[in-house]
Specification:
This protein is an all-alpha fold. The protein has one domain (13-97). It has six helices and no strands. Helix 3 (32-39) packs across helix 4. It is globular, with a radius of gyration of 13 Å. The N and C termini lie close together (10 Å). Mean pLDDT is 80; it is low at 17-21.
């Protein structure tokens, strides 16, 4: 389990990225904390991402789209190819199993 300081560092990095650019869907889909937020209903991540979205409203469309993709992985998508979906599922399974 990461220490509090490493979590804080990740959050600061996330916030600084958000300040300099719009967060992309692919960045969110690669973010372990975001995966836990959407797929595991992690309370700590819920608080963090809700706060993140409020502080960075320009990121909300990407957050919504990434959440939709993760919640509908078994539904055909215009966003990802079948191969990308299968790769994402494998990565999620590996990431969240740790």
């Amino acid at each position: 389990m990461p220490t509090r300081s490493s979590k804080e560092k990740r959050q600061r990095v996330g916030m600084s990225i958000a300040k300099t650019m719009n967060i992309g869907v692919s960045w969110l889909l690669e973010n372990t904390d975001f995966l836990r937020y959407v797929l595991e209903s992690d309370c700590e991540q819920q608080i963090y991402w809700d706060s993140f979205a409020k502080e960075h409203p320009q990121c909300q469309p990407a957050i919504d789209q990434a959440k939709y993709i993760l919640q509908h992985l078994d539904t055909p998508s215009d966003f990802l190819t079948r191969e990308e979906i299968e790769n994402l599922k494998r990565r999620i399974k590996t990431t969240l199993s740790v």
